[in-house]
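Usage

Read records sequentially. Each one opens with the input sequence:
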Amino acid sequence: MTSKKNTITIPVAGMKCASCSGRVEKKLNSLPEVENVSVNLATAKVTVTGTMPLDSVVQAVTEAGYTVPTVESTFSVQGLSCASCVARTETAIKGVPGVKNAQVNLATREAAVQLIPGTVTLAVLQTEVEKIGFKLGEIKKNNGVEDLAEEERVKEHQEIKERLTIGAVLVVATFILVHWNNFGLDSAIVEMTRETNFWLQFILITPVQLWVGRYFHQSAFAIAKHGSANMHTLVTVGTFSAYLYSILVLLVPSLFIAKGVAAEVYFDTSGSIIVLILLGRFLEVRAKGRTSQAIRKLIGLTPKTARIVRGKKEVEIALADILIDDIVVVRPGEKIPVDGLVLDGSSSVDESMLTGEPLPVNKKAGDEVVGGTINRSGSFKFTTTKIGSETLLAQIVAMVQKAQGAKPPIARLADRVAAIFVPVVFAIATSTFLIWWFFGPEPTLTYALLNFVSVLIIACPCALGLATPTSIMVGTGKGAENGILIRGGGSLETAHKLNTVVFDKTGTLTKGQPVVTDWSGDQGSLNLLASAQSRSEHPIAEAIVAYGEQQKVAHAEVETFNAVAGKGIKATINSQTVLAGTRLLMSEYGVDTTLQQQTMATLEAQGKTAILVAVDGKAVGVLAVADTVKEESRPGIEKLKQMGIDVIMLTGDNQRTAKAIANQLGIEKVIAEVLPIHKSQEIERLQASGKIVAMVGDGINDAPALAIADVGIAIGTGTDIAMESSDITLISGDPMGVATAIQLSRATMNNIKQNLFWAFAYNIVLIPLAAGLWFPWFGILLSPIFAAAAMGLSSVTVVSNALRLKHFQPS
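and closes with the structure output:
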């Protein structure tokens, strides 16, 4: 029997560079049950798809030299009475995949469970415990994956800061010793021998090498046990080479004397390398914390508690305890906890954090409200319709997290290079050492060692590994802030190449609801028409009834009502016969509409649906209904045209109606009379002509066209979005968001290209310099200390450049 395919996402600690992520990916891909692996260095997470058990994934990560962090959650356990109960409960909980350890306390009747975040649900734990006769209660303490990642970052930041501070003090002191005579301190303070100076340098740098540098060495040695190497290996080998060389010079100086010149120690080199690279790492960790601010901001929108109605009382409960159909009370200034429908009361709600729209939205009974938005004024009650992972905010968070973990095609080259980077650098460094030792000037060993160390230190796979994910994280986060949800790196990359955007008309460029735009009759006739249409469920009838209410019509009792298929209606009101519909309907009942024909033609030329109205056989007026254009549609289309993008409107309407709407919007190209099932064929036809096409639709009826387009963009109102059918989703429903999404894609891709250029150029230019390739012609050699400074700066530069996307503003 084959196992069920599943997708597992777990955090991984210890990955520092692209070669680390490449090694984890390679190890996981070696598992026979694995179909796909995605390792994200920026978020420190691994996603694996296949039939493999969770334990196999964790074991593979561990064998690769990394750890899978856990969090501790506390549960209440009911029914415990003896030590045997404790043992049985612990065994049951430990048997759940994702649980690393469990300790049950009989006195407090609590279970402390260590688990891998995101892999274990409360329901699964409860089921296993109930099988042995006990009950597991609510989680009392739980840290989510995002909280864990932030805690890890803060912990690492603090650790680096402590080591960096002590290391910097010791290196500065060593630097003073190295230049003791140059500073005139031999006469000002004390004159010391060369040997004494060297021993003092050794005393100062040894803690730097062994304790401060342990941040790098620990990872390097752990990886070495598995026959692998990473960026930290380069630092460890380089610094220990200089450190041990200096100790040999100190202990056995005669080994290194060449042509009567005493050998020098390089304690300051090894110490400076560690401190400078640690400084770069410190700045990088601090900057990376800012790249995930968008996702933490989204998660922070949800309140921790909610006020619900229980009987006749209002009770405050934890958000996790809310159920479907609960009645929630929201007061002014409070956040709405979950999605629902307003039952009672009215207010204005700030939805800007989800849609990007600055103006509050008025809410009344029957309107939808979304969890995470803020109630600005007024109190109301609503009934919950979506909770937990089903809420719009939860879906948005999941979508952004998925997008931030995705790799665009442009990242593949960097991944391939990073996978072989460290072995290649070791080969170059070794070759450098041998060439300088055999062919270099005296002292050959000194030159060989320093250039060997410089090559190891200056090589930076980190910049390659961070070039793409940091930009993706900031770009997708910025998109979420603007109400633009991007599903993956592929669509983000393709969007910047778009040269054609095809809009579905109804509900995308128009409001999607017919409204009355014209009425040529009197109030009395309108009273009869609105009364008659109140018996119909047709959308046009609803529009006429709504118009009648606006005009304050007096409704009369409808005695008889008849819907004439495809033609209109016939009704009797106060013994009067009312007809409303097409020319054909009027002709069948002998109504003369000669005087109304010019009005009909004018309205139809404007793309409106014209309806003739007659009372007791006499034409009394013409009413026009149209799906009106959204106010924001034309500016959005004009912006796309300014960006050099062709705009096409695709609709099932007839040519005349379609052309009239297109004229209002400033669209020159129209494809009309297209059935929904044929829309995808039109997209394919455009693609065949060499166009890179985005399809913009409601995400439901246009699903085939959205799927076949190079980029499918779903446009909706926020709570009614078919996210799964599109590559990009615009929460606000504003067509201007299409232009913003393309601009964001262009900005992000430019940022990624800049990062990749810097990462490649840095290594291509500086590794030969460090190897001494320019020495024969220009006499230039790169000090290992400068190599360390450049290496630390490279990663900081890439992350800082990505952070510039936080200032993105649509033009």
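Summary fields computed downstream for this record:
- The first strand starts at residue 6 and ends at 11.
- The chain has 29 helices and 29 strands.
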